[in-house]
Structure formats: structure tokens, C-alpha cells
Amino acid sequence: MAKGWRHICVIFIVTGCLAGGSVSAFSELNTNQIKSAYLFQISKFVFWPEERKQFDHFNLCLLGPDSYQGNLQKMQGRTVFNKAIKFQRVQTLADAQKCHLLVLSSPARINPLELSAWLRTHPVLTVADGAQNIDKAMVVFVLEDQRVRLHINIDLARIAGLSFAANLLEVASKIKKGGQ
Amino acid sequence: MNWLPRLHLRTKLIASIVITSVLAVTVSSVALVRYDRIQEVANVSEDMRILAGIVANRSTAALIFADARQAQANLKALGENPNVLMACIYDSGQQVFAVHHFTHLDQKPCPEVPKESDLSIADTIEIYEPIELDGLPVGTLYMSLSLNWLNERWQQQLLFIVLVMFAVLMLSMVLAKYLQLLLLKPIQKITATAREITEQQDYSLRAEKEVKDEIGDMADVFNGMLSKIEDETERMYASEEKFRQLATLSPVGIFQINLQHQITYVNSRWSEITGIHQPLANLEHWLGRIRSEDRRRTLKAWSALIQSHQEFVIEVGFEKQDEVTWTIIEASVLHDGKGDVYGYMGAISDITDLKNAQLQMENLAFYDPLTGLSNRRLFQDRLNKAVAESKRRGTFVALLFLDLDQFKRINDSLGHDAGDQLLVETAQRLRESVRETDTVSRIGGDEFTVLLSDVDSTHGVRHIADKILKHLCKPITLKKQTVINTVSIGITMSPTDAKDANKLMRNADMAMYRAKAMGRNNFQFFSEDMNKEMMGYLEIEKDLRHSIEHNDEFIIYFQPKIDLLSYRFIGVEALIRWKPKGKDMIPPDRFIPIAEESGLIIPIGKFVFRQSLLQVRHLMDLGIWPEHAKMAVNLSARQFSDPNLIHDLNESIQMTGCPVDVIELEITESTLMDHVESAIFTMRKIKQMGISIAIDDFGTGYSSLSYLKRFPIDVLKVDRSFVMDIPNDVSDMEITAAVIAMAHKLNLRVVAEGIETKEQIDFLRSNRCEYGQGYLIARPMPGNELEEYIQRPIQVDLLSL
Asked: Which of B203, B327, B506, B597 has its C-alpha lying 20 to 30 A from B637's C-alpha?
């Protein structure tokens, strides 16, 4: 199958399946699969600083245990901004300097202030699960009414020099902005 | 549309302006409204498309992240445009993801299947806008837009247009009225001028030029045309006047006839010629005046002119009282400007004088002006016709050829007047002697013919010939002298003697000569013997012509003459002998008359003269030609009257180098007596050349002494008929003696011809006749013998007698 057709199929699957928005509606698709699909789509609504666009790959990093049950690895080979997704696991923030998107699978271990300071010099989109992690992740997946919803921390993104497309903000169920 | 041309120009002008204005407003309004609608729809469509694009773009995330609530919120934003009826968002599986109606009434469901990017405009505008993410379709936005607001807008516009149109209508009517006045007034003035000209026939009027536009030009052109018409009219009047004067003065009658055959115009000359003074007569009336003989021909010519337009020239006579006016009518068709025939025009000329002159000329051509009898030409024509008629009917024709016996003598002695009177009287008597149906003609000089047609037998002809002889020989008084004239008649019959006119004439001529030979005053019928004689005559003439061409068949003999006192040789007479090749010698008395008659005597005479002179020249060169001896050559009547005579004599003398004083010309007495005055004139010329002249055969003619005295002659030759009877006939002896005596009185020398006996010589010598010639002295001999004869002592023979 050609690469283009593969993309179309994926989008159909993701949007087609997720358009319903209900996780239960697609019992065969688990939450991790939905979130990994969301990650892929979210990256299209995020604007990185110019220097990050110079990289050869779209670096998708995972800090912490594989909470996505291997679904992130499966994203390798797809493209974002015409760049192939390269998945890598990192142990520390220091390892994640060249990442475009950093999934924090155990955010509890991350010091928010340290992260905030690190983000000032590293434009990396941080993603985590659970509404309580809104201070550490710019995009947070929450489960509301059995649907995967998004919370977005614009303040944190602004620190890292990132911005979000308005479209994305419209679909976010909660936006943290100006400390609120 | 037949009513359209009947409308006034004023109405047409107003109507055209009003209709044009309304039409222009209507068309431009419709176009503007249409354009406005299209433009509005395009603008709205474009706006909505942009809006759809925005909403679609905005709904990407909602679709991607399955946020139907957000999608619906996005759709609501479209409600800012009051015309949007409904909007739907489809997901990538073409399922309705979100829908929103902006009206409460007539809510429709979303279309089941979304189209790809599309814009359809009907009662509503429907827009399908694809929703894409990263270049890939993730859904479709559908929008439906009401166009009711456009209809409301159109109604407003329509109201406005109606108002504008009404205003335009009012304005254009006012404008048209003004223009109508502006345009039509000058045209109406031109029309009024034209009408005035038509009514008054006054081409000096002119249209006023009020404006300088095309109508002003039209006025100029109209005025120019009027000037031209005025000029043309003046010219036409002048031309008509010229024609009228010409027609009045014309020696030719002029007429014009219309297609109804009415004579519409004639000049006065026409009336004079035709004798019709009733004006405007018709053609049939006119043709009725034409001589009945010419009427059929004239009607034929007229009908050819009327039916096939063939112009004609015809000669016809008009009967006026008892006279006939001869005319020439010429006529041809008249064409109008389109080439259609509208009548006939022609001329009639009076040619009566010409015709009379022509008749007179014809009379002269066919009739003898002196006697009034038909001339040779008419006679021959009638003879031909009579012969043809006799062949056809099997009857006989008799031709009488008459010649007066004493005409020449009477003419010479009593003058030409008397001769003419004799001819007139003879003609009258001839007419009286025959039937009216017979033709009497004068065919020349004193020759007449009588043509008797429908003759049964020679007996009747003989009777008429007798009657003519008797009637003509009655005495007639000419210049107070009573003379008796007789006539010799030759008669021939057709078809017994000949069947053609020429042969008949020849026969009659021969018969007439026979009558002359038979002593005149008689008639002779033509016979085959005469014909044979004539054939012999013709053969001799033919042989003569041949001999003249070859010159070797004529021989010159010379008969010596001697002095009767001394018996010495004093000269010779040249005598011609003729022996045609292969034939016997033909005596002179047989061929000389034929040569004389045919004119061949002229070349023969020249030949004899030239040969004789050559002979003398030869004998002179030998030194044996005696001094004073003469070479005498006969000169015939024909030669004597030949205008070239003197020239021919001179030519021969110069050619031969013979001295003139040796030559003597012998001319018969009768030759000289034919035309005495001219004979004297010719003889004087001969004498001036130095040539001697002798009168031959003296005593046989009718010489009067007065003539003889005037003749410049040297010698008289006493005719042999007197000499031959000496000494037996006393009267001949007396005549001979008297002639010799008379000659001597006139200082002429005498030659006696035909001396054959001693007694004759003695008698002549006793009467002192100077010279003698005859067989007793010497027979005619050829040149070589003459040579010997001259050298011989001739008197020896005579003395021995």
C-alpha cells in the first residue's frame, strides 16, 4: 500500500472511530490507542519555534514507563510536517532536549518548577494523563463522560515557546491560561 | 406591417424616439438587474464560501477530536448571515456529524450524501466545502443559503425601473416633439415648394435653406435639380420651337401616329402632299387616299411596322382629283424613355417631279424621241417576249426589217431637218399600216422594224409588207419639195426560220440586204440560201482575220499605166490578191466588200499601202523607177473616213522612206460623195502631205460639177464600164469624151481603165486622154515581174499593134 493511502486509512480510522468521541463506542480500541492517535493529531495543531523545524525527524519521546502499551512505537514511520516520526525513550529531561513531543508517563516524578525551567530553553510539547498534571503537561488527556478529552496549559506552552492552533483550543474542555 | 409606410413621418419620428428610449431603458435595466443579481449571487457565494472555508477550517479539530458540541458551535457562527438556512458537517465517513437550522420553519434534513467541493445556485445557494487537515479530507461542510432577499431586491429595482421608464417616456416624448419640429419643418418647406412648382409649373421657384445639415444639403440638391429642370425645360421649349419651325418650313411632310392609329401631329406640308386638311385624321383614313395599286403594299408595310416594328420606306401615289402625287413614305416606331413603343413617326416627301423625270427618262430609254416609236432596247425586249409567247402558244411571229432607200441622199441634199421629217412621216405611215398590237420600232438611223405577232401564214405577212411598200412610197413634201421615198424590207418568221431573237434579227437583216440587191422598194423573205451566203461571208471574214495576223497570204500585184501618146511607163496601180492557206485565190470583188463591211479593210489597206511603198523604194534603190512615175494605191471608203488615216499614212511613209511625190491615192467617186464636206477636208490634208489624189471609177457616182471643182484632185480615172463598150456604145463614147473634156477643163489628167483593144486606145488618144491602163497594156503582175517590165521597152508591143 502506498504511503499516502496508508495515511488516509489511518485518518479515516482515527477520525471515523473517534468522531463518535466515545471510547465505549469503540470497545475494540483501547484508551491508549486513542491517546496515541490523539498525540499524532495534536502535533498538527501545535506550532514549534523555527529551529525545531530544521530537525530531520519528528522526535516522539517517552519519559517513564510505557503507559501506551507499545502504541507509541507503532507511530514510528508516520509523518508530521513531512517529517518521519522517530520514537525514543528517554530517562531524563536532559535526554529529551531534541524531542518535539515528550510523553510524561509518570509525571509525579517530575518537579514542575524544574520542568518549567527546562522548558524555557527547550521547546518541547509535554503530554501527560490526568487533570492533576496540568502544571507539568501542556496537553493533558482526561477521561470525561467516558470520552477522552483534552486539557491544555497555554501558560506552560508559552514558556517553552510553543503555541496552539485555535481549533485545538476550541476542542479542549479546559484551558489553563494566565494562571487559571 | 402594411400600415407602417402610411404613417406620417411625424408619427414615425416620435414613435421611433419613444420606442428607442423605452427599449434602451428596458434593455439596460434588465441587463443591470441581471448583472446585479449575478454579481450579488457571486458576491454572496464568494462570501459564504469564504465563511464556509473558515468554519470548515475551524471545525477541523472538532471533527478530528470528535467534538460535536464544538462543531455545532462553529455552525452557529454562520447564523450571522441572516440568509443562511441550514448548515451541516459530515465526517469522513459521510455521516452527519453536526447540523444546525437557522430557521424554525421548513427545516430540511441535511442531504444524505455530501458532494465534493461544489456550489449550486438555484432557488437557494448550496455550498459543499471540504474539511481538510494537513491536505487530507476529514469531512465536509454543507451550507444552504436562501435567495429570498434577492427577489425582494428585484422587486424594489423593478419599481425603480418603472419610475425611471415613465420619466424617460415623458422626456423622450418632449424631445421627439422638439426634434420633429426641428427636422420636419425644413422638409415640409421643401415639400410645399415642390407642390407650388407642380401647381404653377414655375421652375424658377427655390426651396429655402434653413439649416446646414443633411436637410440643408437636400434643399441644395433639390434647388440644383430645379435649376437643371429649368434649364432642361428651357432647352426643351427651344428645341420644340426649333422642331416646330423646322416642321413648318420643311419640304417634307411630317406625321406622328399613336398606338390607336390616330394621327396626333402633322405639319402643313403633310396636308399639302396628302390633300388631307382635316386635322387629326386616323391612319386608315389616310391610307384610303393612296392609289389603289399601291394600297395593298402600303398596308403590308404598315402592318409590319405595327406588328414587328420594321421600319419602312415605300413609294406610293396619292390620287388628288385626276392627278397622282407621287410620294415616298418613311416611318419608324417611337420609343419612350423606358424603351416602350408609344407611337410611330415618319416623313412623306413629294417626288412627283422626280417620278415624272424618271418616267421621262424611262421613255427616253425605251422610246425614240424623234418618232415616238419604241427603240432598239424595247424592241428587243418585245421580240424576246413575242418569240417566247409564240413558242408557248404555237403561233408564228414575223419580223420585218426596213431600211429607207434614199434617206442618205435626201438627208444630204435637203438637210437633217428634212431627214428627220422623213423619219417621222415614215414612222407615222408604218403605224398606220399595222395593227395596234403589232410593234413598230426605230432601231437606228433609217432602220425600222415591225413585229407581227399571232401570224397565221406568210400570206398575211406578205399582205402587210405590200401595204407598207405602197403606203411608204406615196409622195411626201419636204421643205416644199415633193420626194418619193421607198423602202427595202427583209422578212423572217419564227419559229420556222429561227427560234431566238438574235438569229431572227440577223435573218431579217440578210433578207433586207437581198431586197436592196434586188433593186430596192421590195420585200424579201429570208431563205436558207441567204444564210449560206452569210455563212460564206462569215468564213471569209474569219479567214481575213487570220491572214491579217499572219500577213503572208496577201500578195500585192501591180498593173502598169502608160502615157497613151508616148506609150511610156508612168506608174502602176497596186492591186491586192488573196490566197488563204489551203484554199483557192479569192477575187477582190468577193472579199473586199466583206473587209469593208467588217472594218478589216483598215489593216489590209495599211498593209497594201506599206508594201506598195516598199516596192517603190526597192525599185528606186535599183535605180529603175522612172522619174515622175506614180505608185497608185486604192483607198476604201472605210479607210478614208478613218480618223487615223493621216497618221497611218505618215507612219508608213516614214517607215518605208518612200518619197511622198511618188504616191497617188485612188478614191472612188461614191466614197467622196457620202460626206462631201468632210471628204474635201480629208483630201486637203492628204494633198498637204504632197500625195496626189485620183478619183476612181469616175462616172458611176453622182458627182456634181460644183463638188468636183472643190475637190483637190489631180487625176480622174474613167470607169472601165465606159471604156469596155468603146467603140460599140456611142453614148459611152460620148460620156467618155465629155468626161475627158471636163477633166481637162478642170486641169485634171485622165486615166482610162480597162483598155483591152486597139480601138479603145485610138479613141482615147483621139480624145487626148493622157494615160491608159488595161490588159492590152499590161496585166497586173507581181513585184519581180514589174522590175523586168519597167526595164523593158514597153512601146514596142503596143506599136506592133
From this structure: B506
Domains of chain A (ranges plus CATH)? 31-176 (3.40.50)
Cβ–Cβ below 8 Å for A170 and B61: yes
CA distance B97 to chain A (A): 8
What are the tens digits of pLDDT across the range B532-572?
Answer: 777 788 888 888 888 888 877 899 999 999 999 888 899 99
Q: For B264-310, write each residue's pLDDT tens digit.
A: 888 888 888 887 877 667 888 888 888 888 888 998 999 999 999 99
Q: Is residue B131 part of a domain?
A: yes
- Kindly list the residues from chain A whose CB atom is less than 8 angstroms away from the CB atom of residue B67: 21, 170-171
Q: Residue B212 domain-assigned?
A: no
* Interchain contact, B61 vs A45, CB within 8 Å: yes
What's the whole-number average pLDDT of chain A? 80
* Strand spans (E) along B517-599: 523-525, 554-563, 569-578
Closest to B490 (Cα-Cα) out of B446, B463, B527: B527
B393 & B471 share domain: yes
Residues of A in contact with B58 (CB under 8 A): 166-167, 170
C-alpha angle with apex A59: A58 to A63, nearest 5 degrees? 155
Q: What is the 3-state secondary structure (H, E, C) of B165-204?
A: HHHHHHHHHHHHHHHHHHHHHHHHHHHHHHHHHHHHCCCC
Buried b (16+ CB within 10 A) or exposed e, B227-245: eeebeeeeeeeeeeeeeee
Residue B609 at interface with chain A, using a CB cutoff of 8 Å: no
Bridging pattern class, strands B554-563 and B569-578? antiparallel
- Tally the domains of chain B: 4
The 3-state DSSP class for residue A179 equals coil
CA distance A172 to chain B (A): 9
Is A16 in Cβ contact with B92 (below 8 Å)? yes
Mutate to test the interface with A, among B58, B65, B138 (most CBs of A within 10 A): B65
- Please write the tens of the pLDDT for every residue from B303-332: 999 999 999 999 888 877 778 888 899 999
| CATH assignment at residue B521 | 3.30.70.270
One domain, residues B593 and B689? yes
A11 contacts B138? CB cut-off 8 A: yes
Domain that holds residue B319: 250-357
Looking at the structure, tell me whether residues B372 and B469 fall in a common domain: yes
Gap between the Cα atoms of A101 and B712, Å rounded: 185
Nearest Cβ partner for A18 among B66, B133, B134: B66
φ and ψ at residue B577, rounded to 5 degrees? -125, 145
Is residue B209 domain-resident?
no
- Enumerate the residues of chain B whose CB falls inside 8 A of the CB of residue A38: 65
Query: If you average pLDDT over residues A65-72, what whole number do you get?
Result: 85
**Max CA separation in chain A (angstroms):** 48
Give the phi and the psi of residue B425 in degrees, each rounded to 5.
-65, -40
Amino acid letter for position B664? E
Do B517 and B629 lie in a common domain? no
